[in-house]
Amino acid sequence: MAEKIALVTGANGGLGTHVTKALLDAGYLVAGLAPKIGPHDFDHPHFTALPARVNSLDDAKKATGTVIAHFGKIDLLAHTVGGFAGGQSVAETDDATFQRMFDMNVTSAFHVLRAVIPHMRRAGAGRIVAIGSRAAEDPGATVGAYSASKAALVSLIRTVAIENKDAGITANVILPGTIDTAANRSALPNADVSRWVNPESIASLIVWLAGDAANDVTGAVIPAYGRGL
């Protein structure tokens, strides 16, 4: 494979770790972005740690600039940053919780997209994959802020696909059900984890979406519900 550069946000998170490993195994040079990340997180010669946040556009541009300065391009943006809050009805949800969900699940993506897309457009190619949630299309009680933020992310990514189809850029969003991560097992100790989604399956899907076989796949909203369907 010709040398490909991937920027993975949330690279050492519950899902991001699997995404980073899958891309490294597929031959990518990976810049792994997270607030606290180091070379020791992935013992691989093709991994570069990028300790950074995407809380602001300036942060995202600075991080992206570091990747461009080091590698010269970004072929793939795999955006896995996100967060969850629930347990209250819409009527009971406070402004701070609602805003936090949008900051974590939409605004972070907005910042990194604004930082990365201009570089991809200049290169005339690029792949963007974001992680949404089943709740974006199948909302439930007491997760209103979370569902709304993930639905907004879906709209954002589909818009990016339309706006950049002329530049050889694809943009797709994956909607997993509950992912089998250590954090989710800790939060839901009595759940039937056999119905959860294997994070390695999502990582494999991202690798496929980044490859030549997915050249014609853009603007897709892809369910990954596992046995929880």
Q: Overall mean pLDDT score?
A: 95
Which value, in Å, is the CA radius of gyration? Answer: 17 Å
The gross shape turns out to be globular
| Percentage of β-strand residues | 15-25%
* Count of domain modules: 1
Strand order of the largest sheet: 3-2-1-4-5-6-7
Name the structural class: alpha/beta
Instruction: Give unreliable regions as ranges.
Output: none
Task: Compile the SSE list and pairings.
Layout: E1 5-9, H1 16-25, E2 29-34, E3 47-51, H2 57-71, E4 76-79, H3 95-123, E5 126-131, H4 144-163, E6 169-176, H5 182-187, H6 199-209, E7 221-224
Parallel strand pairs: 1-2, 1-4, 2-3, 4-5, 5-6, 6-7
Account of the protein in words:
- By secondary structure, the chain is of the alpha/beta class.
- The chain has a single domain (5-228), classed as Rossmann fold.
- Helix content is 40%, strand content 17%.
- It has six helices and seven strands.
- It has a seven-stranded parallel β-sheet with strand order 3-2-1-4-5-6-7, with helices on both faces.
- Strand 4, helix 3 (95-123) and strand 5 (126-131) form a beta-alpha-beta unit.
- The longest helix has 29 residues, at 95-123.
- It is globular and about 45 Å long.
- The model has no long low-confidence stretch (mean pLDDT 95).
